[in-house]
């Protein structure tokens, strides 16, 4: 298999400058040659996800009072960040239009983007069990899920997941609240405070010396032996994917409230940190459903762990890992420390994703500090990866080519750019202070 991979790499990208930069762990920007701007799709599954979120509003409001200010939605504010925009323009950026931060580091319950997909899949599984066993109908008040009887019922069942950290936190918190037994299989890159948080709420944490991929593989294998266990597969789950995709509808409402137009003359650029790909992939899919060719999505990955970029660039997708080209998959952006992309997501992104860029760890901390000092937002290193997106697109040679090829160069003054943050509000103060002085 390794020989086959080596031969395909040689044939496909031996003359590619971005590939050479990947191998040298240099920052690079990659335009997706398979991107199809006019590709149109429909998805009833996203509509189903939106409807399921609405059914669970009474439960979420009752159990998590912090969701009331957003009417029971698991959603975050869309905030102007004018001071940070000036900071980026200090990087010799031309006029770029408006710049916003989609604040998923402030999401209710678990404080990260993983709340969207992880909580959604747990709620869907709970609903399925309750409907199957006659405990509820879709027309009932779902606050019944907060009852002692409901928790007693779910205590017969278990949920497992493999995670670098934030997905495990989201699933552990909602799973335990519903009454499930929860096991989180975690890689060595996972932050210790996340493991301790999970243990403090009663979740089982299994640690692995190997990386994220082994944690997922082991969790999946162990779950197959237990008929009462539901394994949430970050690499292969459609439920996670559609849970994330539902975020696009909320964002559309927020843009309308701010008077932001998205059309051919007013393009939207969105920058998302990428690990295995589920969160950014689902959101990109949802945005493309709503805005089509007028939204342009870019994934950000560490120079040590560019798994999605590598999989798409070579066409090998999940068949190739960063270790196959000599990278070590070690980064302070723990949520992005993934060696191999999701098969499901890389197949969807092959034609929907505009491009990817890589970023060094030392730059992550510079951006993290800037978001705090200029805008008072505390984000994780993984989250900060998206914060360099506008500068990379507008300053790099490959970024300029993307804009020219898609006839966007003359429309930048009318554009809106969104940096999608992914986590940070649950980071202990002592660790956040370490990030800020690093």
Give a structural overview:
This protein is of the alpha/beta class. Helices cover 46% and strands 13% of the residues. It is built from 20 helices and 11 strands. The strands form 2 sheets. Strands 1-10-9-8-11-3-2 form a 7-stranded mixed sheet, with helices on both faces. It has a 4-stranded parallel sheet with strand order 6-5-4-7, sandwiched between helices. The mean pLDDT is 92.
Please indicate the percent range of residues in DSSP E strands (runs of 2 or more). Answer: 5-15%
**Shape category:** globular
Which structural class should the secondary elements be placed in? alpha/beta
Q: How many whole angstroms does the radius of gyration measure? A: 21 Å
Number of helices: 20
Number of strands: 11
State the helicity in percent bands: 40-55%
Low-confidence stretches: none
Compact description:
With 438 residues, the chain is of the alpha/beta class.
